[in-house]
Structure formats: C-alpha cells, structure tokens
Design goal:
Number of helices: 5
Strand content: under 5%
Radius of gyration: 15 Å
Order of helices and strands: HHHHH
Helix content: over 70%
Shape: globular
C-alpha cells in the first residue's frame, strides 16, 4: 500500500477513535463512510473492516471509562449479552444480505441516532 493510502486509513481510524472516545461509541458510523469514500473500499468491505477496527477501539474506550469510574458492569451486562447474540446473528446474515438493504438499514440507523441525539 502506498504511503498516502496508509495515511488515509490511519486518519479514518483516528476519526473513528475520536468518535468512540467522545461519545462512548459510534466510531463505526464515522468509519464506514470514510472507508468507502476516502479509502476506496466496497460497502461490504467497509462494514466488515469497521467491525474489526471498532472492537479494539471499544475495548480501549471501555478501559478508560472503567479506570475513571464511569463504567457500571452490572448495567452493561444485559446489553453485552444481547449485543453478543445480535452481533453473531448479524454476522451470519451479513453475507447473504443484498448491499442495497444493508445501505438502507445503515442509513436508517444513522437517522434514528441523529434524531434521538437532536431531540434529547
């Protein structure tokens, strides 16, 4: 990979890390569009790459919140269990799902999150 390509990928990762650090999540919603537009990955590659990148970023963010006293494991546990099941199911369905539907679902998720943040 050329040096400029590596820099674009590193900057996309930095943007995802900043979103995760500031908001406690959401790095994937920043990373997927950057990976497709800026880094030239296909939509399917961007979704899969985002998952691989976000895991360590989430672990890092959770560790920082834990050491600073902002993480309640008991409150997080049901979400962790449900998220594990949802992640497994989503990964299984991902391969067979048409890209047009994945894009629509992702767009709806972003709209939902944006409206919720705007109204609260």
């Amino acid at each position: 990979m050329k040096k400029a390509g590596k820099l674009r990928f590193a900057l996309a990762g930095a943007a995802a890390g900043l979103a995760n650090g500031f908001f406690g999540g959401g790095g994937g919603s920043v990373l997927v569009p950057l990976l497709t537009r800026t880094c030239g990955l296909s939509q399917r590659q961007a979704f899969a790459t985002s998952v691989a990148v976000i895991l360590p970023l989430c672990v890092l963010s959770a560790g920082i919140y834990l050491f600073r006293g902002g993480l309640d494991w008991m409150a997080a546990l049901p979400y962790l269990i449900g998220g594990t099941l949802g992640g497994w199911l989503g990964g299984r369905w991902f391969r067979g799902m048409k890209m047009a539907w994945l894009k629509r679902l992702f767009g709806l998720l972003l709209l939902y999150g944006g409206v919720r943040c705007f109204l609260s």
